[in-house]
Amino acid sequence: MDDLIIIDKLKRRINATLKSIQDSMMGGSIDNMEKYKYLFGQAQAYQIVLQEISNLLNNKEQNDEKGNVIDIGNTKGGSSETH
């Protein structure tokens, strides 16, 4: 299975779980502060994981881009060697 397909499925599953947690928190079904803090911590963890996945994918996309690198050297006309 392609890596990006797996990552996409994982992101969808995390987003669905995060939405479920958010719905529970906003729906008023939490009956004590301990449960609220637990769900809040889970929501934060899922958001961090999603952000890390996005960061990793952005780095991969940037590394996969092909482009030309042009070395223009020292623009002041001097030598770049140190004496």
What does this entry look like structurally?
This protein is mainly α and about 80 residues long. It has a domain at about 5-55. Helices cover about 65% and strands about 0% of the residues. The protein contains 2 helices and no strands. The chain has helices spanning about 5-25, 35-65. Helix 1 (about 5-25) runs antiparallel to helix 2. The longest helix has about 30 residues, at about 35-65. The chain is elongated, with a radius of gyration of 23 Å. The termini are far apart.
Layout of SSEs?
Blueprint (H helix, E strand, L loop, with lengths): L2 H24 L6 H32 L19
Helix pairs in contact: 1-2
- Average pLDDT over all residues: 83
Q: H/E series, N to C?
A: HH
What percentage of amino acids are in beta strands? under 5%
* Count of DSSP-assigned helices: 2
Largest sheet: none
Distance between the termini: 56 Å
**Rg calc:** 23 Å
- Shape label: elongated
- Unreliable residue runs: none
What percent of the residues sit in helical stretches (DSSP H or I)? 55-70%
Count of DSSP E strands?
Answer: 0
Which class best fits the helix and strand makeup?
A: mainly alpha
